[in-house]
Amino acid sequence: MAENTVNEEEKNVQGEETTKEQVEQPVAENETTQEENTEAPQEEVQEEVAEVDALKAEVQEQKDKYLRLYSEFDNFRRRTAKEKLDLVQNANEKLIGELLSVVDNFDRANDNFNEEMDAKSVHEGAVLISKNLKSILEKFGLTPIETEKGDAFDTDIHDAITEIPVPEEELKGKVFDVVGKGYKLNDKVIRFAKVVVGAK
Q1: Residue 190's closest CA among 143, 155, 152, 146?
Q2: CATH superfamily of 143-200
Q3: Nearest to residue 132, comparing CAs of 150, 106, 107?
Q4: E-strand stretches of the chain
Q5: Which of 126, 150, 159, 162 could pair with 192 in a Cys bridge, judged by C-beta atoms 3.0 to 4.6 Å apart?
């Protein structure tokens, strides 16, 4: 009987130990899991912080690049506007320089003019100055629009100032008379030839 009591007590002690081990083991596992869980969020937070820092650096880099480009474009725009203004202001510099020789010729003619000069010499001087002027203008691309009586009326180069009835059938709807010569500058009409057209 005493032996049975001892055996039961041993079994109870063993049972208690087993229960303690079973209780302690899950507690230990829970502690390990909690530690892992604590480490995992910290790593995630560190990764997110690193990613945010990288994005901030990229945004700053793009901002700096934008500011540099904007500054360069602004400088380019100002420089181009200044060059355009200079070009407009000085576009005729070369032409004016060439025309000064014509002005000089007129001045010389006026200085040498007197009442004793005959009409022929005055006319010759005027013709020379006119040729000089025309040659300079031709050098800069100015060409006259050649229009004669009987030419077909062309609205691209002619400006009809009036229409008159004409007896000749072949002149109806065509140029009857040239009142003012037209001119082109580098193939662009800068003054239309003023003409009288025969009425149809």
Answers
A1: 143
A2: Head domain of nucleotide exchange factor GrpE (2.30.22.10)
A3: 106
A4: 142-145, 158-165, 175-180, 182-185, 188-191, 193-199
A5: 159
Q: Within 10 A of 176 (CB to CB), how many other CB atoms are there?
A: 23
Question: Which residues have CB under 8 Å from 160's CB, separation 6+?
Answer: 153, 195, 196, 197
Cα distance between residue 127 and residue 120, in whole Å: 11
Domain ranges of the chain: 1-87, 92-140, 143-200
Contact (Cβ atoms closer than 8 angstroms) between residue 147 and residue 183: no
Does residue 109 sit in helix, strand or coil? helix
Residue type, 24: E
Phi, then psi, of 185 in degrees rounded to 5: -120, 110
**Strands 193-199 and 158-165, how do they pair?**
parallel
Q: What is the full per-residue pLDDT of the chain (200 aa) written as tens digits?
A: 444 554 555 555 455 555 444 444 544 455 555 555 556 678 888 888 889 999 999 999 999 999 999 999 999 999 999 999 888 777 788 888 888 999 998 888 888 877 777 888 888 889 999 999 999 999 989 999 999 988 999 999 999 999 998 888 888 889 999 999 999 999 899 999 999 998 87
CA distances from 60 to 17, 52, 162 (A): 64, 12, 72
